[in-house]
Design a protein that fits this description.
Blueprint lengths: L4 E4 L5 H10 L4 E4 L12 E5 L3 H9 L7 E3 L10 H7 L2 E3 L6 H16 L2 H9 L17 E5 L3 H12 L3 E6 L10 E4 L3 H4 L5 E4 L13 H6 L4 E5 L8 H9 L3 E6 L19 E3 L10 H19 L14
Parallel strand pairs: 1-2, 1-3, 3-4, 4-5, 6-7, 6-9, 7-8, 9-10, 10-11, 11-12
Length: 320
């Protein structure tokens, strides 16, 4: 058994790698993007980022020393959480990094639709001055239901209130938090959703949220509701979504995530006029690695002291 290893699968800047190296002399810091040195992979105790092929070997190795994985994303549905639990491995996510980016994305697509900008872009491509084809609404005073009131939901709620939008939230217990007029428990969602003009999904993917948005829930929304998904694609039953859009139960949907990615060319979503498709870009964040390193270093310093984390630890049972 050799010296324990911090394995950097996510490529970091050289000065960032040096920052990690200066923090501890007890570990070898293995920069997978740059170094050709050899290590015994079973000596890896900490991973920044997740190499699935290597990760599966470590999860299945009886001699693996893996203790903690820092994910680079907020969602962790691609990880085998049962195996992490069985092996006693801590998992943390990058929650909080994407809050502003996703909030701006949601408001951007809403303004694009409500102010007729999407139609104007289409008309511009045809060199048409067609003021009479542009429909518009006022976003201010609309009721928005944000399903998921974590870092992103709270940031979106705060931003949206700045535009005069009335923001309501859905979370597990119904506890009220920053950015919301009122919050409701998941079990009451279908009862209050009929009052909302806009529904935004920001939920992680779990067994409980898989296909949460289905024919039953879409039917509970009032006709003409706007639906935005920046959470997880598999939270939505795609066939039921297409049906709700085709029959105008939903007046518009802005979709950044999908059950199958990239979205297949034969998906009917491509051909619906009341859909805006973006290629999973809502979370793209300037200075992402600097923000990721901040979370990682806070956790690393705490981990080196007592084997626990400072923030963003995932409940392996709940999946978030």
């Amino acid at each position: 058994m050799g010296k324990p290893v911090i394995y950097l699968y996510e490529e970091m800047k050289e000065e960032q790698v040096k920052t990690i190296q200066k923090t501890t002399s007890e570990y070898i810091v293995f920069d997978a993007a740059r170094t050709s040195m050899s290590i015994d992979e079973n000596d890896i105790e900490i991973m920044l980022g997740w190499n699935n092929e290597l990760g599966q070997r470590l999860l299945n190795s009886p001699t693996s020393r893996l203790k903690w994985v820092q994910s680079i994303s907020a969602g962790v549905d691609t990880y085998d959480l049962n195996r992490f639990s069985e092996k006693g491995i801590i998992l943390s996510n990058a929650s909080g990094i994407h809050s502003i980016s996703i909030s701006e994305h949601v408001l951007g697509v809403l303004l694009t639709e409500f102010r007729g900008i999407r139609t104007s872009i289409k008309n511009q491509s045809k060199k048409e001055w067609a003021q009479n084809t542009v429909s518009y609404q006022q976003l201010s005073t609309k009721k928005m239901l944000i399903v998921g009131t974590g870092h992103i939901g709270q940031q979106l709620g705060t931003f949206a209130q700045g535009l005069g939008i009335q923001t309501y939230g859905v979370n597990t217990s119904g506890h009220v938090t920053d950015g919301f007029i009122e919050c409701y428990a998941h079990k009451n969602m279908s009862r209050i959703i009929k009052e909302m003009d806009i529904v935004v999904n920001i939920l992680p993917l779990t067994d409980q949220t898989y296909h949460l948005y289905n024919e039953q829930l879409f039917s509970a929304m009032k006709p003409g509701t706007v639906f935005i998904n920046v959470g997880r694609g598999s939270s939505v039953n795609t066939a039921d979504l297409v049906h709700a859009l085709a029959n105008k139960q939903l007046s518009f949907a802005a979709l950044d995530v999908f059950e199958d990615e990239p979205l297949p060319e034969n998906s009917p979503l491509w051909n619906l006029d009341n859909v805006l498709i973006t290629p999973h870009i809502s979370g793209l964040t300037p200075e992402f690695k600097e923000k990721l390193l901040t979370i990682f270093m806070q956790n690393l310093r705490k981990f080196l002291v007592d084997g626990t984390l400072a923030k963003n630890e995932i409940s392996l049972e709940q999946g978030y």
